[in-house]
C-alpha cells in the first residue's frame, strides 16, 4: 500500500503519537493475516496432528462433510423410482455392483422405452443434514450434476460419517434444485468453479477450461478443510517444523483476531447470496477467480455482491421477503440484532463443533439469552406457537421452506420480533415459487455497502446491470459510457458489453464490441465465439467461420466451438469440412446434442435421410427437450409419409418451445395430410401468429381454410402471404381461384398472371391454363 506522508508533527506531539503507533503495531500484529495470504496449501489431514480435538469434532460438521465420494455396499438394488411430470421423464436410482446409478427414460412413440440415459453417481455434494446432490465425473474430468437429489424432507438425516450415500428411511428422492421444470439440464449440467469453491476444499491440482466447463484434474479433496477459514497452511507447518512458533502464528489466520467485517467475510465468502435468481447476485473481479480469496483480505477485493432495487408494486413484498437456501448471512444482516450489535456468525455458531438435536436447541437459546436474558419476564405477550413448547428459535428464527430448493426446510436467520402468521413450511412448487422471476430492474450494490467512486468500480457497477439481462435498457449505455471514460486494458469489460448487445439482439453492435475486446487481447477466445454467433445470426458465414477457426486454434478441444463451426460449414455447403469438424466435436464429447443434430443436418444436405435419422434420434436421446432435433426428425418422417410418428415429434418440439413457428407449420401440414382439418387450422394459425412474415404458412393455412369452405378467411390469408412475399406464387394462384369463383374476373386474371411467373412448372402451367379459360 502506498503511504500518504504528511509533515512530521512537533516534538511535543511526537511522544503521544509514538505511544499510539506502538499500540497500533501490537493490535495490527494480532488482527492481520500477514504471511498466510499468499502461502501454499497443505494436506488437510496434517492439521489434525497438532489440533486433534478440534479435528475430531470438525470432521462431523456439515462443512467437513460437504463433498465426498459415493461409497455404498456392493450388491444390486433399486433405491427409488420417480416420474417427473413437467419434463415427462422417468428416473430410477439403483445400487449396482457397488456403484450408485441414476437412469432416465421416457415412453416413446409406440409405448416403449425411449431416450434412455444413465450415469454413475461418483461424488455427493451435501452433508445430509438437509440434502445430498450427486455428481458424475466424466471421462474428460468435467463434473456433471445429476438430476435427482436426496432430501431429509421428513426429518431423517444421513449418518454423520462419510458413509450413508443412499440416504435414510423417511427421506425423499426428488428433482435437484433448478430441475423441477419442463426444460431442465438433466445429465448435462456442468459444475463450475464457483460451485466447487463453496461446496468443497480448494483443488490441489490444475483446473483447466477450454470453453466447455472446468476440468478438475487429479484427485479431488473431500470436504471443506481448515484452510478455507484459516488460509493456506503450508508455511504454518513449515514454521512449526523449524521450531518457529511465533512465525508459525503469523503464517496462519486466526479469524477471531480479525475485525468484525473481516471475521464476517470469512463466513460470507460462501454464505452471502442475496438471491439465487438472475441479477447477478455477485460479480467477481477480473483477475480474482474462484479459490483466490484468502481469509483476512477484504472480500470486496475479490467479489462484489448485488441485489434488486427496493421492491415495490404487486410482487414487492415477495422480493423483500425472499428466503433462499444460501441466504443465511443475507437474512441475518436484515436483523435488528445484527445491525444494533457487534455480533458475528460465531456469536452463535462454533464452526469446529456443531451441536445436534436438543443440545443444539439449548446451545442456540443460550446464545440468545446472553443478550436477551430478561426477555418475556415483564409480561410481554408471546406469539402463539403450535407445539409442545416454544423457544427463542421457534418464534424469532423459525424454520422455513426455501423457495429455490423447495424440499429443504431450514432455519431462517432473519431474527424477527414477530413470527410471520402463515405456514412457513407449507409445500412449495418450484415453478410456482419462481414464477415472478427473472427480476427486471435496477441492480443495486449490496456488499460492500459502498465502493470508492473509481472508474474501475463504476465499470463493475455498470456491468452488473447487463450481465444477466436485468437492466439492459439503462445498463447498456451506462456500461458504454464507463468504458469510454475508463478505457480499461482488460478485454472482459468490452466482451460483456458485446454480450449485453447480444441479449438485445443488436448483432452489429455485438461484432463491434467483440472486435474492440480482441484489440485488447487477440487471443480472447470468448469474444471470438460471441462474434461468430452474431455473424451467424446476420448470415455472414465467412466472418463466422474465420472467428471460429481462430477460437479452435486457441482451444482445439472446445467441442462447442467445433459444433458451431460445423454448423457454419453446413450453411456454406462445405459438407466434407462440416462432417470432419463435427466428427471431431463428437469424438471429444459424444453427449453433445447440438453436434449430433448438426451432423444430421449435414447428411440431409447430402440428400441422405437414412444417415441423418440416427443423429437426430441420438440428439433427442441426449436432450429430450431439444426442439430443433424433434422438428428435424419429424420433417424427415413426414417426407416418408410416416405421419403418426412425425406428428408425435412435432408435438414434442412445440411442447419444448411453444413459440416454434416452423414446428407449428410442419405439424399443421401433417394434420392436413391426415384430414384432421380443424386441428390443422389451429396449428397453422399458431405458426402465422408466431411468425407473421412466414408467407408459406399463410398460404398453407389459406389452402386448408379454402378446403373447408371458409373462403373469406382463406382470401385474407392468401393476401397476407402475398404481402409478406410478393413472389409467393402459390398464394397468387389460390387467391385467383377464389376470385374467379366469385366472378371477380379482372382481379383473378391479375393474380393468375403473377402465378404464371412461378418457377414451379405445375403452378406456372396451371395458371396459364386458367388464364386461357378466363380470357
| Main beta sheet strand tally, sense and closure | 6 strands, antiparallel
| Number of E strands | 17
Quaternary state of this entry equals single chain
* Arithmetic mean of pLDDT: 89
The secondary structure category is alpha+beta
Shape assignment = elongated
Contiguous helical run count: 32
Distance between the termini: 94 Å
Could you estimate the helical fraction of the residues in percent?
40-55%
Name the descriptors:
disordered N terminus; single chain; alpha+beta; 4-stranded antiparallel beta sheet
Describe what is shown at a glance.
Helix content is 46%, strand content 11%.
Written account of the structure:
With about 775 residues, the protein is an alpha+beta fold. Among the domains are: about 65-225, no CATH class; about 260-370 and about 390-425, no CATH class; about 455-540, Alpha Horseshoe (Serine Threonine Protein Phosphatase 5, Tetratricopeptide repeat); about 730-775, no CATH class. Strands 1, 6, 7, 8, 9 and 10 form a six-stranded antiparallel sheet that branches. A four-stranded antiparallel sheet has the order 2-3-4-5. A hairpin with a 5-residue loop joins strand 7 and strand 8 (about 145-150). Helix 17 runs antiparallel to helix 18 and helix 30 (about 730-740) runs antiparallel to helix 31. The radius of gyration is 32 Å and the shape is elongated. It starts with 10 loop residues before the first helix and ends with a helix. Residues about 1-35, about 160-165 and about 380-385 have low confidence and may be disordered.
